[in-house]
Amino acid sequence: MFQDKVAIVTGASSGIGKATALALARAGAHVALAARRESLLQDVAREIVALGREALVVPTDVTDREQVDRLVRATLERWGRVDILIANAGAYVRRPIRELRPEDLEYSLAVNFYGSVYPVLALLPHMLERKTGHIVLVTSMDAKKGIPPDAPYVAAKFALAGFGDVLRQELHGTGVRVTIVFPGRVDTPLIQNLTVPWISAKIPPTAVAKAILKGIRKGAPEIIVPWQARLLLYAHVLSPRLADWAVRFFHLEGWEAT
Ligand SMILES: NC(=O)c1ccc[n+]([C@@H]2O[C@H](COP(=O)([O-])OP(=O)(O)OC[C@H]3O[C@@H](n4cnc5c(N)ncnc54)[C@H](OP(=O)(O)O)[C@@H]3O)[C@@H](O)[C@H]2O)c1
Hints:
By secondary structure, the chain is of the alpha/beta class. The protein has one domain (6-256): 3-Layer(aba) Sandwich (Rossmann fold). It is 47% helix and 16% strand. β5, α5 and β6 form a beta-alpha-beta unit. Bound molecules: NADP nicotinamide-adenine-dinucleotide phosphate. The site of NADP nicotinamide-adenine-dinucleotide phosphate has 31 residues, from α1 and α4.
């Protein structure tokens, strides 16, 4: 189902975005690669071309609406259509609330929320006109249960999950599908300074990429990966007090290297 499809992947220079761009290309798609670090995007593009697929590198800061519009325009100029958007670019902003500066929240929302919403808004008219398309929003398990001291990150990821939940329902019947991805801890540069407890062990980014492709195939509304990450969500639904205790007991916040 991915053969000759056109995908845009934001945050394609590293981690989950890079793994997803390569997985899409391996499945037959052409991919527009967006992030700020152009040389890393060029490396990914070379891998995609070696797989026999086409790649387009568009250096993009997703917090800048004009740059996001340019990304969409460049992709449409190259292939004439966009079938899949993987809104994945993100940044981990972690600071105890009593030390929080407004800039921490603003930066997190700019990257993690608006950085995903801008590409959705830029692409939606095109997808609605064609009556087909798939939008994937990469949020986090932190959008199901907040973990201290991640308030800036948690707030932005909850906002994105809420936006995606409404988006999916508003687009029902239009031919445009929406999948929200909630990864647990993933072994990428994003949290390379964080040691995590065994119960939330880091999974490889390729596992998230595989789940994303499966989710697109099945039209899944939500993906939680790995499955163990659901346990904290279930505990929270049962009793927020129980889930708060589990966060403290298992040290789910992890330990930061100094
Ligand atoms: N790793 C985890 O444990 C984990 C868990 C749950 C959810 N997630 C989410 O998964 C997504 C991917 O993260 P990752 O783990 O793969 O981390 P990563 O390896 O650090 O990748 C983050 C990507 O986002 C891009 N990015 C950051 N700020 C950007 C900006 N202003 N404009 C454009 N691109 C920007 C980075 O590219 P440039 O620096 O080149 O711009 C990079 O490609 C994020 O949304 C993250 O919140 C990760």
